[in-house]
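Tutorial handout. Part one gives the primary structure; part two gives the three-dimensional structure as tokens.
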Amino acid sequence: MEKEKEEATFASGFANEEEAARAALVSKFASECRVSGGWGKRLARAVKSGLEEAWDLLDENRALINELDHNRDSETGDDLALNIALLGELNENMHRAADLYAGLSAALAAAAARKTKARKAKEAGSESARPE
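Part two.
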């Protein structure tokens, strides 16, 4: 019950459910970074900023799509011509968001590989230090 109250209080500070869910996801990741033996504050900040930037692009795309729909429905020549530029911007934003997600994926994979390598080296060192 207490956890539900905390989540409701946390979510009340945001404009909508989606924004609250995003903030909760970032907060949970940052918390996991601290708890799991230090994935590192720098990685947590990079993931947080990368996710926020990608989400901003996706929000911008949502607005662009709404404008495209409106322009298409109006069927005026100027609005339809404007859609060409809007489609180009939408396409560019999608590529940028995909690049951000790819970069985040690579950063997380590299961090996981470093952590695994360090753990294995530590285990190997502790095994060789054991008396036989």
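Part three, for discussion. Helices lie at 2-12, 17-35, 41-74, 77-128. The longest helix spans residues 77-128.
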